[in-house]
Amino acid sequence: MLGAIVGDILGSYYEFHKIKSKEFDLFHPESKFTDDTVLTCAIANSILNGISYKDSVSDFGLRYFEVGYGSSFKKWLKSDNKEPYNSWGNGSAMRVSPVAWAYDNEEKVLQEARKTAKITHNHPEGIKGAQATALAIFMARNGASKEAIKKRISKDYQYDLNRKVDEIRPTYKFEISCQKSVPESIICFLESTSFEDCIRNCISLGGDADTISAIAGSIAEAYYGIPENIEKQICRYLSKELMQIVEEFRTKFTKSNHLV
């Protein structure tokens, strides 16, 4: 799950300062965590503490309200009767990564991915984006090759993963739909040579940089791991509460070292 948070923080500045190049400062003075980080931690908190996905996402969303949520999600947070609103947005994919680490059975991972999505994103494309991302993470952390991941995701979710980053970049623009951002995120991972290269691919598209980087970063973490020099810098961007959730989750489910 830390890969999603790293991707979010590194991509945050470039969501509003778009570039079409891989040459840029990875950490910008204005980098920060956004809704992608908060909701990823909300899903992790749900798993750690046995709280429903809806209650945890609502709780964290209301307490971290001004971090860049879309208008529909904000309305959902403020509503008394929190019902799903048929969203196909990429918010379902950016927050799903904890389930791919918490469960060791593919069927269970896909089942839980669906559950995390449908509290808000119950449109078929919203669910599809969450499940495709979770499956890619699950396969990567269990040693699958990039070719195996590509074939499986293409077959099961009908995403066109045969394109190249250099082909996508020139005409790509800000997209919030799963169907126009999850495949591109996966391609950024498939074409990468390292965790950092994956994030640079994402940001260079000039689109929804933080969310695409969160989605791809969550897969890249499972495949490459996160470089120590990047990991060490991330803790200074997180609140004490969010960092504690990350550390507890990683200790329990990924057996990774603490951030500090």
Main beta sheet: none
Question: How widely separated are the two ends?
Answer: 17 Å
**What's the gyration radius in Å?**
16 Å
> In which range does the helix fraction lie?
55-70%
What is the gist of this entry?
The chain has helices at 2-16, 35-49, 53-63, 71-78, 91-94, 97-102, 106-118, 124-141, 146-157, 165-168, 182-190, 195-204, 209-224, 228-234, 240-254.
Task: Characterize the structure shown.
This protein is an all-alpha fold. The protein is built from 15 helices and no strands. α1 runs antiparallel to α13 and α8 (124-141) packs antiparallel against α9.
Task: Supply database-style keywords.
260 residues; mainly alpha; 15 helices; globular
Secondary-structure map:
Layout lengths: L1 H15 L18 H15 L3 H11 L7 H8 L12 H4 L2 H6 L3 H13 L5 H18 L4 H12 L7 H4 L13 H9 L4 H10 L4 H16 L3 H7 L5 H15 L6
Helix pairs in contact: 1-2, 1-13, 2-3, 2-15, 7-8, 8-9, 8-13, 11-12, 11-13, 12-13
